[in-house]
């Protein structure tokens, strides 16, 4: 009963939690379970505290405390003392709160209750900050962060490690905020530098570790039994995917069966992740890896930047947000409005750019763009000059098309110029990510072939290509019917099978024509399949271009992916989903992967980890940089953009970042494509050189 109460409390159903706790309490007493009674009383106190009934909470806590002491439950006593401190703190009695926290701390330490110690140290820091004792507060929060850093390395599973890290982001946020408050009072003491480094420590750490691991063969020395289990689970995942395709395909998709299959598929995915964790924890190669350390300010300046490149790193917080602008020789920091204000402006901007009712109304887009630009860029405008911008976003800014942002009007100019007009723009999960990417491909010999393009897959058994050779007339008819098509299948995958994307073929042919035929390979129709993508041959290509439907799943990023051919040349259904788990298992040596699909830059926005999706899969697989999209892009518009992008790279010898910018600017000049909806979705992540 007590545990059921706990679950309801976690679900936010506080009254229901109370009902179960109060049923549990007399039973605990009747059987003389005093430590259980102490726990339930403490839990009831917690519920009342969360409901705002602080005095009632105190009554239950003070009943619980002597029982914990009498039964020798020192960790229970530590929790209750910490909670009592929390109530007094919220009642404004800071000194009294501090006394309880200080009693709780040695008990957490003595019982090895590390997460309790983390929370209490942070609470002590919070009270000291409120008492304006900032330097002491800093020592306490730093001790707390040190334990967190130690705890996260003890978790072998990257998924669990990043979900643990998400739960402790508020400590980093507090730490960064405290450092920036100290910077205000002592601007010469380097607190802003410490804050930037704390921000770097707080993000994309699992990705850093994955990238470091990707270069070590962690399967060497692993028992064959474990490797066999991994292989078997991969086969089972493939089989269930096939089963799912049969179930969602017309003429009679079966909703109940789909739900059943989805549950099985998730269970298999979890087993697969557990096997991966076992492989890591038993691998001698993995054990020998040292934890990659996030870069310090001098390392960022030396390893990542040059005189023409600056870093804009954002950290969004409950009360205040921050922006650090790092050049190769200096650091400037700015205080920005609170997270919720930035979110409101960012959502309005994204909506104006992407919504069918607003995206073609220039005033709407300009207004929303200037609003957000005013908040997140204006403070640093004087420093941007014509520099290349490396942007490390946070929270909602992961979804924001920076190239289309404008700085509010300069006197004497009558229009706002989008950021892309004066800057090359690259986004990074963290500055440290780029250092490890460079390390990984530094000693790699470039692939012998130039370009592999997979495009225009076959999605439906009714496709004309199954019945016979496709004619020019059919292609033209398809293109006429499919104007304005999106390269997306929603995560719910309601529209099935997805529409054919005729412009992807045209896109692929135009791009291929720019390369010598001997070094490029076009893969169309039935061959544009998951089998082709995973057969190991893509390791031979410098550029890999996938033009098809993209699938972003924000609940389970492992189920994000690219949709390849779903039928073979006989019309049989096959598994055409190139999922994130498949992508992690690819071996690539590409200097560029282009995901010319919808929402290929999306995934799950995990606190502290950033966007978990296809980009990190391809980086792990060996790609130096990945071009991805932030929303459901237009089929024809994307084909035009891609053609220009490759022309700039090949004919004008521009770097991918510079080529993308030049292509976007050219589209912006054309009446048909001038709305940012058509050109601003694609962003380059990874290497800028």
Write a compact overview of the structure shown:
This protein is α/β, with parallel strands linked by helices and 689 residues long.
Q: What multimeric state do the chains show? A: single chain
Number of strands: 16
Beta-strand percent range = 5-15%
What is the tally of helical segments?
Answer: 29
Q: Helicity, in percent?
A: 40-55%
Class from helix and strand fractions: alpha/beta
Report mean pLDDT, rounded to a whole number. 89
CA-based shape:
globular
* Low-pLDDT segments: 477-484, 490-494
Strand order of the largest sheet: 3-2-1-4-5-16-15-12-8-6-7
Roughly how many Å apart are the termini? Answer: 60 Å
Characteristic key phrases:
single chain, three-stranded antiparallel sheet, 29 helices, eleven-stranded mixed sheet
Structure description:
The structure is a single chain. The protein has 689 residues and is of the alpha/beta class. The strands form three sheets. The protein has an eleven-stranded mixed β-sheet with strand order 3-2-1-4-5-16-15-12-8-6-7, sandwiched between helices. It starts with a helix and ends with a strand.
């Amino acid at each position: 009963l007590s545990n059921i109460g706990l679950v309801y409390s976690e679900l936010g159903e506080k009254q229901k939690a109370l009902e179960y706790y109060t049923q549990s309490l007399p039973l605990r007493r009747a059987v003389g379970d005093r430590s259980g009674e102490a726990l339930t009383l403490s839990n009831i106190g917690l519920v009342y505290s969360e409901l705002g009934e602080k005095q009632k909470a105190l009554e239950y806590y003070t009943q619980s405390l002597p029982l914990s002491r009498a039964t020798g439950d020192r960790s229970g006593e530590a929790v209750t003392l910490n909670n009592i401190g929390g109530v007094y703190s919220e009642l404004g009695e800071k000194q009294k709160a501090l006394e309880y926290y200080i009693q709780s701390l040695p008990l957490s330490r003595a019982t090895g209750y590390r997460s309790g110690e983390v929370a209490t140290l942070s609470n002590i820091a919070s009270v000291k900050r409120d008492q304006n004792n900032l330097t002491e507060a800093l020592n306490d929060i730093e001790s707390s962060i040190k334990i967190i850093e130690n705890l996260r390395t003890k978790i072998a599973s990257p998924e669990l490690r990043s979900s643990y890290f998400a739960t402790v982001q508020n400590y980093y946020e507090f730490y960064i905020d405290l450092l920036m408050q100290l910077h205000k009072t002592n601007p010469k003491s380097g607190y802003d530098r410490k804050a930037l480094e704390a921000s770097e420590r707080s993000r994309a750490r699992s990705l850093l570790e994955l990238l470091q691991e990707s270069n070590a063969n962690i399967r060497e020395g692993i028992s064959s039994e474990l490797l066999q289990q991994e292989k078997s689970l991969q086969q089972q995942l493939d089989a269930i995917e096939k089963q799912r395709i049969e179930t969602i395909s017309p003429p009679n998709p079966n909703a109940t069966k789909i739900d059943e299959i989805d549950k099985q598929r998730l269970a298999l995915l979890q087993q697969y992740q557990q096997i991966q964790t076992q492989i890591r924890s038993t691998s001698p190669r993995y054990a020998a890896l040292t934890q990659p350390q996030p870069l310090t300010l001098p390392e960022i300046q030396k390893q990542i930047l040059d005189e023409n490149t600056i870093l804009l790193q954002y950290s969004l917080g409950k009360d205040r947000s921050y922006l650090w602008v790092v050049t190769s020789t200096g650091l400037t920091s700015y205080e920005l409005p609170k997270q919720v204000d930035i979110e409101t402006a960012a959502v309005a901007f994204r909506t104006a750019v992407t919504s069918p009712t607003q995206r073609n109304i220039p005033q709407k887009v300009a207004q929303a763009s200037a609003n957000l630009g005013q908040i997140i860029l204006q403070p640093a405008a004087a420093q941007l000059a014509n520099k290349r911008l490396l942007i490390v976003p946070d929270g909602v800014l992961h979804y924001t098309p920076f190239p289309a942002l404008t700085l509010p009007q300069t006197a004497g100019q009558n229009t706002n110029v989008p950021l892309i007009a004066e800057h090359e723009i690259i986004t990074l999960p963290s500055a440290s990510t780029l250092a490890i990417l460079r390390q990984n491909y530094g000693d790699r010999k470039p692939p012998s072939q130039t370009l592999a393009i997979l495009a225009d897959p076959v999605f439906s058994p009714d496709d004309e290509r199954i019945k016979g050779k496709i004619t020019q007339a059919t292609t033209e008819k398809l293109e006429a019917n499919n104007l304005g098509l999106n390269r997306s299948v929603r995560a719910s995958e309601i529209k099935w099978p997805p529409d054919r994307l005729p412009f992807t073929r045209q896109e692929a042919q135009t791009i291929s024509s720019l390369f010598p035929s001997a070094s490029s390979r076009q893969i169309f129709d039935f061959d544009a399949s998951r089998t082709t993508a995973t057969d190991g041959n893509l390791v031979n290509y410098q550029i890999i271009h996938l033009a098809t439907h993209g699938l972003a799943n924000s609940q389970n990023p492992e189920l994000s992916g690219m949709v390849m051919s779903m039928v073979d040349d006989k019309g049989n259904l096959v598994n055409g989903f190139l999922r994130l788990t498949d992508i992690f298992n690819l071996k690539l040596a590409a200097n560029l992967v282009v995901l010319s699909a919808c929402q290929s830059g999306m995934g799950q926005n995990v606190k502290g980890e950033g966007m978990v999706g296809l980009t990190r899969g391809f980086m792990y697989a060996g790609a130096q940089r990945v071009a991805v999209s932030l929303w459901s892009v237009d089929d024809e518009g994307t084909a035009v953009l891609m053609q220009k992008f490759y022309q700039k790279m090949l004919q004008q010898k521009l770097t991918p970042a510079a080529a993308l910018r030049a292509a976007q600017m050219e589209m912006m000049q054309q009446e048909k494509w001038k709305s940012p909806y058509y050109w601003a979705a694609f962003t380059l992540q990874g290497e800028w050189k």
